Amino acid sequence: MLTPSELAALAAAWEPARAAGVLGSASLSDLWEHTAGFVSAVCSSFSGRAEQLNLRVVDVGTGAGVPGLLLAHQLPRSHVTLLDASERRLDHVRRARRALELLDRTTIAHGRAEDVGRFPDFRGAFDVAVARLLGDPRDTLELLVPFVRSGGLLVVSTTEAAADVWAQLPVEGLPLGPAVVQGTSDRFASIRLVGAIPDTLPRPPKARQRAPFFR
After folding, report:
1. pTM above 0.70, yes or no
2. What is the pLDDT of residue 186?
C-alpha cells in the first residue's frame, strides 16, 4: 500500500490531472484497489507473488498513469512503460512518477498505439500489456496484441456487460487463447498470446471497424 507521504505526494502531483478531468472522480484508494485487480490477474497468470515477478509491462493509453504507475509500485521488480498519444496527459504522468520516485522503473512513450506497436523496440517486447477501459474490446485487443511476446499476457479492465464479447475468444486471425474474466465490482479479462504476431496487426482504424475479428 502507498505510505501516507506517498499518498500526499501523489494527490498533489495529480491535482492538475483531476482539474483537467483526466482522472475522473475516483479516489486514490479506489484507483489503488482497481490496480490491485490487474496485479491479481498478472500474479495468477505467471504463478508468482507481486514482489517476485520480474516483468516488462506496457500500459497502453495510460492517461495520467493509471494503472501503469500504481502497477510499477505494486510490482517492485518489474519495469513499466507508460504509453499515451497525448503529451498533455503524459505531463501528468511525469509529475506522478517523480512523486512516487519511480523514475528508474518506468519509461514514458508518446505516440498512438497503432503506430508504436510497429516500432522494433516495442513490437513483441513485453511480457504484459494492460489497458484500463481503453474502448471497444475488439479494438483494444487488436491494439494490444502487437506489444506482447508469444506466451505473454493481455489484461484489460472491462465491464460485466462485455462478458459475452470476451466469451467469443479465441477467434481466427488473432493468436489468442480464451479470456479469463475475474473480479466482481471491477472486472478484468486476462488473455494469453499463444502464437506469433501477424504482420498485418494492427490494422488501420477503418479496417478494424469494417471487419472486426469478432462481434
Report:
1. yes
2. 84
